[in-house]
Amino acid sequence: CHPQLEGLCSFLQLSTCPEHLLVQFCSWLVALTSDLSYSSAAILAEQLFLQRVLSLTQPPSRHLMAALASFCSKYSQPFCRVLVAALLREPGEDTEQTKLVCELVEECLEPDCVRLVLSQVLEMPLSEKLLPVVQAVLGRQEVLPPELLDLLVLTLCRQAPAFAMSMNYAKLVTALLTIYQSQVS
């Protein structure tokens, strides 16, 4: 019931509720005995977090981080497909949003969602904004499927001229060669 759920979110003003109440709401959602459907969780991820996170101009509050961590502990797939994908597509530097995605990758997301974030990044042209996200993924030292690792290596090779002067790119390539040295020739 997408229109009803969106209407309920609007009625409850979930997108603008105080962050301490957001934490309580997310805790309640996670504690439900039956899981939300994928589409309902995706709608809630968008309604609860998207505008808050897109408007960040400073690091997120501990309440917002607690709410994000709580929600994505149970609904990480829709969370990544809606919220993380939107953050990655945003034009510009968006320093706070990039830091937030990196923190989520490093501390909150399950391995399958870490791989999902990497695949989402690799669907776009690489930019300085996206390099720290890939670095965070590599920092997890997860086993990457061969096809995803091959795509990452190919993308980094193709984009090398554009990042000739980038320290972030150099760190990323070094990390890749260190962590996956047996798979990269």
UniProtKB/TrEMBL annotation:
The Fanconi Anaemia group E protein C-terminal domain, residue ranges: 4-184
Question: What InterPro entries is this protein classified in?
Answer: FANCE (IPR039685), Fanconi_anaemia_gr_E_prot_C (IPR021025)
Recorded hits in Gene3D superfamilies, A to Z, give:
1.25.40.480
For biological process, the GO terms are: interstrand cross-link repair
The Gene Ontology CC terms held by the record are: Fanconi anaemia nuclear complex
Its protein name is FANCE protein
Species source reads Bucco capensis (collared puffbird)
Encoding gene (name): Fance
